[in-house]
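Section 3.1: Structural characterization of target chains.
Under the original work plan, the team committed to producing a structural model for every single-chain target entering the pipeline before any wet-lab resources were allocated. The record below documents one such target. The sequence was received from the expression subgroup and is listed exactly as submitted; it comprises 277 residues.
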Amino acid sequence: MMENKDALARVQLARHPERPYTMDLLAAIFSEFVEVHGDRRYADDAALICGFAKLDEREVAVIGQQKGRDTNQRRHRNFAMPKPEGYRKALRVMKLAEKFKRPIITFIDTPGAYPGIDAEERGQAEAIAYNLREMSNLNVPIIVVVLGEGGSGGALAIGIGDLVVMLENAVYSVISPEGCAAILWKDAAQSGRAAASLRLTAEDLIGFGLIDDVIKELPEWKMPAALEDLKTQNSFNATADALKSALSNGLTRLAEMNDRDRQSARYDKFRKMGEWI
């Protein structure tokens, strides 16, 4: 098992404020992005960015959770904690992608779904559960990228895919280490112990077969605009290129499968999770 301090360090890296977010990778990897707003039922949710773009010459749907860079952006994006209308907007775009035979790429980066009473009143749990069911049955290729934090059902609501890849320093877990420590030991100082016990790193998860690939990060992979450093710029470009290559190769492999086989394999993949031999 990973040492407590190492697991918690990964969590801190996943939350680093200079870490690239969904919109940064939209600019670096895709072209001709056109955003789609609103769920056609209640409102638009800025915590989730949805739309259509090109990955080289391949037209795709892109959905991702977005954190903010400053206080105003963080408030606008609700700290990347989607509300029900965000998940319904995401599903609306997925259904459009299915209709027009566009592969779907999702980027996970959230501490979790928004837990406010207004979200609960509008059916937060139902929206997440509905997405899980519908994504399981979509007849187009789906690739999921865990970009930073992958928190609980708020992440999983856009996390059902044929391929699930993680950035090396991303984390993916049913609960935050702080939340786990508060429940089990009633002591936030135990968050390092909780992080190690949760087995939430990319290294852990690929060992369990819960994800399919890990994208290596160079040490300086931060936002170049924040540091204005050529080394950082080169590191960002190299990691973004590696992710782009993984997405392109993954979509090529998935396109070789017929819809029924791909859907069946996706279903079996997630049904096996949690099995212990």
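The chain has a mean pLDDT of 92.
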